[in-house]
Amino acid sequence: MLLPWKRRRKPAPVRRDYRPCLEALEDRTAPAIVNTTADSGVGSLRAAIMNAAAGESIPFEIEGAGVKTIKLLSPLPPITPANHH
Length: 85
Prior knowledge:
Blueprint: H1 45-51
């Protein structure tokens, strides 16, 4: 015998007219931040220029006190619409 509060419920009917769909969301990429004085690679000014979105500022967050110098081994890429995502 089932107690009244332990009765099994009937499963909800399946809706056959429902079709889930995907929806595009806005781009949520992380900002290009310079956190190293290396010429290239992750966190470099060169990588930040290549990965920055149009109109995006490039913040510098290089750790340590004092003035920092980035010694370039080759010219930086141009800042043009061609290298903006």
